[in-house]
## 1
Amino acid sequence: MVVLVPIKDLKPKKKIELKDLLDTMASILGKWGVDKPVVLKENEVVEREDVLEALRKLGARYVPVKREDEQDYFTPLDHLGFYDEIKPSPLRVFNSTLELLYKNWPTPLVRLNSLSTGKIRVWAKLEAYNPFSNSIKDRIGWYMVKRYIEEHGEIKKLYEATSTNTGMALAAMGAIMGFSSRLYLPASIQKASDILLKALGAEVVRKPKSLTIEFIDEVQADAERDGAVNLNQFENDANFEVHLRYTAKELDLQMQSAGIRAKAIIGGIGTSGHMSAITFYFKNKLRNTIKIYAVQPAPGETIPGIRRVETGMKWIHWTKPDRIVDVTRDEAIEGVLRVARRDGILIGLSSGAVASAFQKLAEEGVIDEGDYVVVFPDHGFKYVEQLQVFFEKKGV
Ligand code: PLP
C-alpha cells in the first residue's frame, strides 16, 4: 500500500543537484503525478531519492511512500498538496513584510484591453505587485537568501551585480534580516536606481559597463576578498527553482480558475530564470498545445532587465522556448505607452518589450483567436528618465 508522508519528515541521504533532477521533474509534471513512490526500509529512503527531492523542489507537501515488497501505483500531484503553498490571506493581514511577499501570492492576472482584439484575449501577470522592488525579482531575492541561510547559516554582508530590481529585493531582505548589502550596477542603468537602493540602506557601486554579466567575476572576487556572500543570480539555481515552485504554478492555478487555456505565454529574458521555469512547467504539463515566446532586445539595443541570449544565460539552455522575438528600445517604450493609455497602468520597459513582441507576433499572423498570457516583470516608475528621453526625441 502506498501512503502519503509529509515531505518534511523524510530527508534524502545526499544532496541532488537541480540539473540532475530535471528528468524526474519533467516526468512528474508530464504525467501530473508520481508512479514510482519512494521506497523505505527501516525508515530510510532506499529508492527514488530523486522523486523525493523533485517533489520537494516542486513544492509538494506530501510524498508517496511504500515498503520494499509492495506494488507501485499512481498518485496524482493534486493529492500531494501540490498547490497548498499558494493560499493568499483573503483580507490581506500579514505578520511581517516578508509574509507580505510570499503569503500575498499569486500576483494578479488581469485581462488587458490594449492588447486584446475581437476574439483574442490577452492576460497580463503583473509582477509589480511584489512589495520590495515592485518587480518579479523579489521572488529570487527572497528565495536565494532563504536557501543560503538554510544551507550555510546567517549572512552578514552581501555583494551582488544587479540591474536594480534584484538589488532592491536583496537590500530589502538585508533590511529585514539585518545584513548589509553592496550592489554593483552597470553605467547604462538609470540614475534613479542609486537613490532607490541607497534609500533601502544599500551601498551602490557603478561599473563602467553596459551589462551586469560583464562584471560578475569582479563582484565575486570582491566578495571573496571581503568575506561577503555573493548569491550570483545568474548561476544560482534558486532563481529557476522559485519560479518553478511559485510563479509558474500560480499562473497555472489562475488560468485554471478563470478557465483560460492559453495558446502561448510571452515574457522577457535576463538571467532567463522566470521564462525558463515557465517553459519547463508548461511544456512538460501541456506539451505542444502551448507555445512559449521569449523576448530579447534587438541587436545593439539596451532594455533594462532583459538581454540577448548570446550574452550568456543558464536555464534557457535547459528548456527551449518556441521562438525568440527581438524588440528595440523605442518599440518597448511604445508598448509601455500603449498599455498606459488604454489600460491605465504604467509598466516597465521590459514589460513594454513583451507587449510590443505580442503585437509583432499578431501582425505576423502567428496569433489567432484564443487566450494569451504576457508576463510583465515590473512597474514604470523607475524608468522616467528613459521616458523623458523618448518624449524629447519625439518632440512631445
Ligand atoms: N525585466 C526586468 C525589469 C528585470 O529586472 C528582469 C531581471 O532582472 C527581467 C525582466 C528578466 O527576468 P529574468 O532574470 O527572470 O530572466
## 2
Amino acid sequence: MIIRRPPDIPSSEITPESVYVNRRKFIKAAAAGAAGFALGPSALYGAEQSQEIPPRFARLQSELDEPLNSYGDVTTYNNFYEFGTAKDDPHRNSGDFQPEPWTVSIGGECNKPGEYHLEDLLSGVTLEDRVYRLRCVEAWSMVIPWYGFQLSSLINRVEPTGNARYIRFETVVRPEEMPGQRAPILNWPYVEGLRMDEAMHPLTILATGVYGMDLPNQNGAPLRLVVPWKYGFKGVKSIVRIDFVQDMPLNTWKRQNANEYGFYANVNPNVSHPRWSQARERRLPSLFKNFDTMMFNGYTEQVQSLYAGMDLERWK
Ligand code: MTE
C-alpha cells in the first residue's frame, strides 16, 4: 500500500488554480460569449454517469494502488441530508442551491475573527489535488480526487488563541434551497468538530473541488471538510461558520445518537458500530463488501501519534 505523505507530493502535481477548468468561472465565460464552451465539464467527463477517468487523474490514481471512483460515482451517490436521506437525493434535489457568493464567519478564540469571503480565503492558499479514500460509517467507500487546501493555512491566518482546543464547523441553513431542512430530519445546522491538532494535521483539507472542478452542490459546494482517516460524517459540507472553542463541540451525529456515533470517528476495523461490523467495506460501485477496512483508513503512519495513549474503543 503506497500512502502519500504531503511532503512527498512533488511540486509538479501542485497545479496552479488557473490551469484548471473551473466550472463556475467557465459557465460565466461561456455566458459572456467566450469561445471554448465545448470544453465544459460535460464534454470533459462525458455524461455524469461516465466511468472514464480523465488522463491527468489516472496519473494521480497510480500513486495509490486502488482505482479512482468515477466522477459519476462521486457525484450521484452522496450523503447530504439537507437535500434528503436517499443516496441520490442530493444529486437530484440540490439544483436550486446557490453556492456563490459565499461568506464564512470565523469566530471564537482567535485574534482575527470576521466575515471572510470565499475568494479572500482562497487567495494566498495553495490549491492542490489530494487523492483520498472516503470511508462512510455505513461501510461503503470511494477513492476521490479532492481539490482543496490545508485547513492549517486558514487556521494560521486567523491566529487562534491559547484557549482554542477544538474547532467547530457549521453548515449553512437555507430551507428554501435545501428541501431536507424543511423537516426535522437532523437538528439543523449540521455541526462537526476536530481537536486542534487534528485540524492542523497536513492531511486535513478544506475541499473546494473534485476532479479539478468546483464542488458540485451535492458534494458540499463551495467549501467542505475532508479528513481522510475519519468516517465520512466528519466531512461537514457547505461550511458557513467556523469557531475556535475550549470544549469539545457536540457534533450532529453524536447529538443524534451518542450510543452509535462519537466525536473522534476514526476509521477502525476493530471497533464495531453497535449494529454492524466495521471490519469490511463495500468499495463503490461494488454491491458487496469487497475490501478489508484499514486502520485509520490507511493513514496510520501519518496520524497514529495524534492518539498515542488513547483508548480507541472508548473514544469512538
Ligand atoms: N454534511 C452535511 N451538512 N450534511 C450531511 O448530511 N453527510 C456526511 C458528510 N457531510 C453530511 C455532511 C456523511 S454521513 C458523509 S459519508 C459525507 O458527507 C459524504 O460526502 P460525499 O457525499 O461528498 O461523498
## 3
Amino acid sequence: MADKKNEWKDKLLYAPKNGYDRLSAEEEAEMNAYCEDYKMFLDRGKTERLCVDYCVELAASHGFKPFEKGMKLAAGDKVYVNNRGKGIMLAVIGSDDLSHGTNIGAAHTDAPRLDLKPRPLYEEAELAYFKTHHYGGIRKYQWVTIPLELHGVVVLANGESVTVHIGDKPDDPQFIINDLLPHLGREQGKKPLNEAIPSESLNILVGSRPFSDEECSDRFKLGVLKYLNEKYGIVEEDLISAELEVVPAGKAHDVGFDRSFISSYGHDDRVCAYAELAGIFAVEKPRKTAVCIFADKEEIGSEGVSGMQSQAFDKFMGDLCEMQGVSLTECFSHSFCVSADVTAAYDPNFAEVYDKRNAAYINYGVGLCKYTGAGGKSGASDASAEVVGKLRKLLNDGKVFWQMSELGKTDAGGGGTVAQFMAKRNIDTIDAGVPVLSMHAPYETVAKLDCYMTYKCMKTVFEKA
Ligand code: MN
Ligand code: MN
C-alpha cells in the first residue's frame, strides 16, 4: 500500500489550497478590473441611501427598468424596485415561469455607523457638538480621532426634503470625535475596552465660531444653525425629521505591497451586494428568474419597512408571480437563496477566538456558512446537507474557489444575517460571503481574490442553480 500513499491522500483528504496557487493570469486580470469597479461602488455608496442611488444608476445603464405591476415582461427582461430609497430589489426574468422558483441573492447595504440623535445640536464650553446614537455593533474606541463624513436627508417643515453630503469632496470640511490625551488618560486606560469610551461621549465636534452678537445666548449653537440655515434652509426643529449618518471619511484603498487587499469603510456587506449586482448584470436570459435584494437594517435585526423582514420583498415577488398566474408560496417553495454576507476571516493576531480547522482564510475564496448564530446555533437557519451540497457542487462545477467557514469559536460570540428571514419564507437558503478582517471597524479589510470569487459564486448561482 505504501507505494500508493499519495494516490490515497489525493483521493480521500480534503486539502484546500490558497487561491493564488490556482488562479490563472487571465482570472487575475479580471479580478483586478472587478475590484476597481468595486472600489468605486464603496466610494459612491457610503450609506444605504447612497448605495441605492448608485445601484439605480448602474442598473439603468445595464438595461433595468423600474418595475410596474402589470407591465409586459418577457424572458430576459430586467426590472428593479426602489424601496423608499433605502433598499433595492432587481430581477432578470427567466424562461421558466415562476412556479419553478427563482435564484435569489440577498445582501444588505446598511453598515455600522453613528446616527445623529433627533435633537443633536448643543454647545458646551464654547464648542458646538452633535450628539450621536450608534447604529449596529461598533467598538466605540475605534471611532474617536478619525475623520468623519456626514450624509443624509432632512425633511423641512414644509415637507420638502434636502440632502446633506459633507466631507467626501476634496475641499469639504470633515468632522471628528475627540479622545483623551495619554497624559491625562491614566484612569481611562484602566477601564475595559467597551467602557473606556461611553456611547454618550461619542459627540461630534461641529464648530466653535460664535454668532456675532455678543449679548446673545447659545451663540455657538446659533453659529452652526446659521450656517445650516444659509446652506440648506434648515432650522433646529427640522433636525428632528432627519436621518443624518456619520461615517468614516476617505476612499477605499489597496493595501499591501502586492495590493492584494482592499481596506475601506462598509465592506460588510457592500462587498457581497456588489458581487450580487455584478453577478446579475452578467446574466442574460437565465432559465430561472434571477433576483437580487439589497436590504437595509440588517445591522439592527432586519427590522423596519426596508429590512429583510419587511413584506416589501413579498410584494415585489408576489406582483411578479401574480402577473404569471403563479402563487407566491409555490414560487418560494422552489426557490434557492444565497444570503450573501461577510464572514470573519482568520486573524493570526487574535488566533484564540477562532477554531482554526473551521475558520475562513484570506485568499481561499468565498466562505460558505452552513449556520451563523451564537452559542449552539441560536438564531441560525442552519442550511441542510442538501442545500450545502447543492451549492458545493455548483461552485465546484463552475470552478469557483470556496471554503467552509464558521464565525469564530462556538463560545467566542456569534452573529446573524438575513438568511433566517429567507428560510422563514420557505426558501432554501445558505449563507456565503467574503471573509473580512476587522469586521465592523471604521476600515475593514478584504482580499481581492475573495471578492472576485464571491462575484463568480453569485453569477454561477444566478445562471445555474
Ligand atoms: Mn453583514
Ligand atoms: Mn455586520
